[in-house]
Amino acid sequence: MSAEDISRSALEIIETYTRLGLKITTAESCTGGMVSAALTAISGSSAVLERGFVTYSNDAKAEMLGVPPALIAEHGAVSEAVARAMAEGALRNSHANVSISITGVAGPGGGSVLKPVGLVHFACAKKGSQTQHIERRFGDLGREMVRIRSVLTALDLLRQVVGERDQ
Q1: Closest by Cα among 162, 150, 155 to 45
Q2: Which of 59, 134, 138, 158 has the smallest number of Cβ neighbours within 10 A?
Q3: For the chain, which ranges sit under pLDDT 70?
């Protein structure tokens, strides 16, 4: 898993979404904009990336994406419920067709027994479809590796949601 893997995956997304005439928005927490950065590193990305939200704080999730503070209080920021709300809020607050959200514990601190370092929730919302969710438990691989794996997982989910999976 390297920068080359991310670049190759991002290029596939840009080519696929351009061909399909679809736009993407991102809602990122633990990756801090890395998915948007990976996409915009590719020439032609302006045809695909509509906007990106970096919502690291709970206030940002609520204010920018409309995630209910009560939902965050009940489930925690790192949860399936919040990942889904982030993806749906990003779609609602953009002109995109597809959104991807990421919220997790990259480490080295911040983990707990129930939500250990390396736990990351992803959601992908597409207009006219049900929001998809994936949970990954990468383990305590170090902050950078958790973030890299999260970006690759997000890009893979963006492929899956339009029916094209890297095999």
Answers
A1: 155
A2: 59
A3: 1, 164-167
